[in-house]
Structures
1.
Amino acid sequence: MSTSSRQPAGSTEMRRRRDERSRQPDRRQTLYGGSLRTLAIATVVMIGLALGLAFFYAPEEATEGFLQRIFYLHVPLAIVCLAGFVAAGAMAIMHLRTRDPRWDLRSYVAIHMSLIFGIGVLICGSIWAKGSWGHWWVWSEPTLVSFLIIILLYATYQPLRFSIEDPERQARYASVFAITAGAFVPLNFIAVRLSTAYLHPRVLGSSKLPGPMAFTFLISLIAFALLYITLWRFEMTAKHARWQLKALRRKLSGEEIPARRRSAEPELGASSGSSSAPLGEPALTTPMIGRQAP
Amino acid sequence: MPLKEAVGYVAAAYIAVFLIVLIYVAIMSVRVRRVERELADLRDSADAREEAS
């Protein structure tokens, strides 16, 4: 039965109340607090600044010319993506240490975000490769192939979660995966760096990058790191709110905890065995509007 | 590479990445709106129950 059909006052009354509420600015409900909005504004400003610097401030590179400006998008995006995978591994360690399902959720969202960034890296990298080398993909290039291997490795994370029905076991196995794969990321990076074939342009860690280019790159890196953090927090807030909504609905209807639908998503109340006050959080009497997901 | 051709590649790369981010944000926004709507319905339901009691 839907919530609206249980409504004794009827749907017209409900609509009237909603209209009334929306007219009251102090009661306007958003699921995100002021800090997420500030973070989002800072991200937009930094991305604008990074784009401005990349196109109007950074000098043109001698060999690649204008095409080299993809560098300010591709490389920071790749660094943030890989750092996100490593961070997800660290969060998974925290999950195994504390058994707190919120760490599993954090790790899950970090991997999800890194995968989205990774797809962006592969697409813009391919476009750069086509412009620079004349091919969309070069299989003999170790950096490209190793990055693809990492993305394919993490692409198995969701199916792995989905294949395990028991939520606690799913969270534990997913954490082990996140730690192992997270450790593989820097090892893979070092291995590629040590390999003899230096086909991929190496501009970082050497004195090749002039001052204005290095500054633009740094701003771009900060901008994409902020974008990652903003989107991570946005998704965390959304997932948290959805879970709280489920718990509140159950509480209002007096229903027992329904059988968990098979899902790859972490179940926040999975290990607590209680729908009212899981995870050591206060008992859920009212929805925590505006409260930030940790 | 001629500037005109290079501009095409650079624009394609930037547009592709920002499009991915935009699609993701749009999907998440729809989900968040749905949660907000459901939350409002539940609040109304709780208010109505309170009034009835």
2.
Amino acid sequence: MTSGTVFSGDDPRQLLSDTLDLTRQVRRIQRATWFPLLALAAVTFAAIPFRYSPHRLGTCAATETARACTAYPTALLVYWPTALLLAYAVIAAFYIRRSQARGVGTRVRPYAVAGTILALAMTGSLLWTLYHPLAFTLGGPGLFPALNSYPLAIGLALVVLAGAERNETLLALALGYLAVVLMTATVGSISDHGGLGFPVQLVIPGSVLLLGGIGFLLAQRPWRRAV
Amino acid sequence: MTSHPANGLDDIVHQRVRLGILTIAQEARRVEFSYLRDTLGLTAGNLSQHLGVLENAGLIAIEKGYAGKRARTWVTLTKAGQAALEDEIAQLKLLISRIEPAPSL
């Protein structure tokens, strides 16, 4: 099989142009953006039932001027880090298997490592905040809910993936996703689990990931043989 | 007097097939022999010769192994290879800037 760019001359302009074509060709073959997006959409939607588990973690605290309480479903606190670590392992295995089949290496390791670190850091941050409710009174009512959101960790890791894949479209999607996450985080919070806010925090970011995944799936068409 | 940019070109790198190999190896963490052969439209023997030149110059590392029962040869760009490729691209751009007329104002 002979395909794509074959260097065609020693003219400097032609050499540079062919180099750029080859670069684009390799990047196109390396990318499998649809897979992590769809996997993480599934992880996000699967989190919704855990919101209804009856056992909650949290506490209340008060000063002379402020009082705040936190409550977070225990099952969800177990689900998120477990599901995310599993998802990043599956995504890394998928990329590696694909790269072996196609003969072109992949740079998925920074993404899997960043995703894992962010998932664990988010768990630590969430646990700390749950037992320091007065943190909610700092920086305005939306700051801590926004910073203690697993979808935020997913979005930050997607920025790393965009860099690893040198994928500007994914970078735009990741930044848009982060904006959606930060906006929806203020709808409900870990101090407000009785209301409707929490499912919205998952349904909307999950839908962005799902639609993005479908978009990349149609654009990258993995069922076509690589050329 | 500054020397002409053509004098800065490395004969090992400034060759269309070897430049292609280095370009692909830079993008991929590592690349398999058959992918290089197919993408660059070469015979196995021709590709092996070019890989030998690059390996002897320390610009790539070659690793042989197996994927299941299939023998595989993987090519990785070395730091020297990365520097040589960047230098070649810079020299090419300099050459182009010399031969292209300056835009009129």
